Task: structure prediction
Amino acid sequence: MLPSFQHVLFHQLTFTENWNLHPWDNDHYSKELKDSILQTGIIHPPYLLRQPDKSFEVISGRKRLIIADRYFKSRKAGCFILPENFTAESTLDLVLTDQSCLPLSLAEKARFIEIAARYMTKEEIVEKFADRLEIRESTSATDEMLELLSLDLTIIEEIHRG
Result:
């Protein structure tokens, strides 16, 4: 089933770390992103996953929604809504695609692998995502990437910033 588009009230949003590729950088956003959204609105709508309780889990577009919530007079934003039965593999693909406008940092790649490992084997991660993540096609590459996330948060943030 394809995503539908609808306006969602901000109070219906659930911000979790389940799909977030940069949890160390949650509430920080660039002045450029803020200015762009305030000038033209959200051009690239966020993706949300419909929950059984009628709330919506944010899959992508966290910072866009935070900015819109803080600065828009309207209490809602236009978003793509994924159905409750949207598969984890499809959600992973969407998360990676949504982030493709900028190259992923090494820390974001590691975080993606960490999230994917909840739903897939390392072999499946390598088979389906190694090319797009630009990592070696071996499970040892995924292990090495995951080791990065065991470092001190300050180091992870610096790795993320390049």
